[in-house]
Specification:
With about 250 residues, the protein is an alpha/beta fold. It contains seven helices and eleven strands. Helix content is about 25%, strand content about 25%. Helix 1 links the parallel strand 1 (about 5-10) and strand 2.
Length: about 250
Amino acid sequence: MKYIYETHLHTNVGSKCGVTAPEDYIKPYLDRGFTGIIVTDHFFNGNCAVDRSLPWKEQVDAFVSGYERAYEAGLKGGLDVFFGFETRLGNDEYLIYGLDKAWLYVHPEIVTATRAEQYRLVRDGGGAVVQAHPYRERSYQDGIDLYPWCVDAIERHNFGNSKFEDDRCDDYIKRYDFCCTAGSDMHDVTQLEKIKPFGVISEKKWTGIDDYVQILKSHTQLELYVESIPFQRVKESPGFEVVEHRDERP
């Protein structure tokens, strides 16, 4: 038996750009054969919905509540729900897995960390780092920045990318022998009425997010669940300079 997991999903609780309430993801993903989802709302250094004037602990509680609501709904509905988050450092964004609310309570420095510091903090905390949609081009960026020594894997397929953007990863993957992930970057569950979500396929059912973290750390390549053609949101021409920052190391 194989188990399908969504690795990249946003709620309207933690992400300003999120459209769907946490509870409303459960049935649609079950209906499409998924075993579980990872809630990866935009963190405080990204497009986060949490009031940053709150005391740190209250910020964390508010941020994690989107995941917690999805988790409770998943328990009732039969879908496994795990916690992660997505950070933004300039032009580049990262999916963080394997940390929890208790860790965030005592590590406020994660918000202002550099890529190398972020990687070191996450790995020391028992987690893993994946660069999300590495070659994405958007109006809020002024280039494409890659930090090969600060990640455990890269997101090869992203639901919101054009095929051109995703395919540009291939040379980068070969040069650094990266393992790859796939995720929907889901913000609005109604999109599932038109297109199948992306994800990863495991031959073993995960008992917790640490199962996925260990897969990423061991550089084990999972089968990718990519049955749809990504939306063509941008012109298929290389408009941004790509810079590999090989000097920044943890």
